[in-house]
Amino acid sequence: MRHLPYFCRGRVVRGFGRGSKQLGIPTANFPEHVVDNLPADVSTGIYYGWASVGSGDVHKMVVSIGWNPYYKNTKKSMETHIMHTFKEDFYGEILNVAIVGYLRPEKNFDSLEALIAAIQGDIEEAKKRLDSPEHLKLKEDNFFQVAKAIISYISTEV
């Protein structure tokens, strides 16, 4: 993808309810308009990068962009797994994502167990790649600082 890193933000919406319940891997979902506005050359597949919720800390993440063939989705989605344990759900909060690399194309799986194993492998690979100096510097990108400033300003105005 020529546009990497790619930055996007939007409010977290309810997804299919599978991430935490069926997979044990919670995801934050972007609304349709964020997915629809991805650059045309963004292939479906699994990517990695950095994410923050609201004005919170920046964490490693993996994101699936596509149709989720195992579940036979009819709508393209963008589901972000943030490598951090949150105390509570954050539906309605602003999700800030910096996609910095590509792991693999999306594919179908023969079983739920195979899908879970692949996702866990993606998470481990992303953790390693994000430790490289070129990717670590993006954790400090102005994109995340601006998000903190905007949300802090809005909070003081309310």
Automatic annotation (TrEMBL):
**Swiss-Prot/TrEMBL keywords:** ATP-binding, Flavoprotein, FMN, Kinase, Nucleotide-binding, Transferase
Residues of the Riboflavin kinase domain: 1-131
Q: Decide whether keyword Kinase is in the record.
A: yes
In alphabetical order, the GO MF annotations are: kinase activity
The EC number(s) given in the record are 2.7.1.26
The protein's annotated pathway? Cofactor biosynthesis; FMN biosynthesis; FMN from riboflavin (ATP route): step 1/1
Q: Does the keyword Secreted apply?
A: no
Q: What is this protein called?
A: riboflavin kinase
Q: Which organism is it from?
A: Vicugna pacos (Alpaca)
